[in-house]
Amino acid sequence: MIELSTVIQELRTELSTAITNGAGEELRFELGPIELEVSVAITKEGGGGAKVRFWVVDADAHGKVAGATTQRIKLQLEPKLAATGSRPEVSGHAVSGER
Prior knowledge:
Residues 2-79 form the Trypsin-co-occurring domain. By secondary structure, this protein is an alpha+beta fold. It contains one helix and six strands. It has one domain. The chain has one helix at 4-22; strands at 2-3, 28-30, 34-45, 51-56, 69-77, 89-91.
């Protein structure tokens, strides 16, 4: 399992790479809303500062998650550039940077 925040950070990293790779390209695409649907295990840590954590569950781990509630959630993310508040543009090339 991986924390939901890590999944979102990895998505941010991939999108940032695509934006960088698209700079100066003739053909670019404006990013619209991104829907991310995942299965999550919800755990609660006890103690005075009780904390709820969301873990993204691998398809193979569904039956192996003990002591946690598993739910499917859908997030709709609206990518915006911090500097301008506008939607970013990416190129049509692979995110890996290969051309």
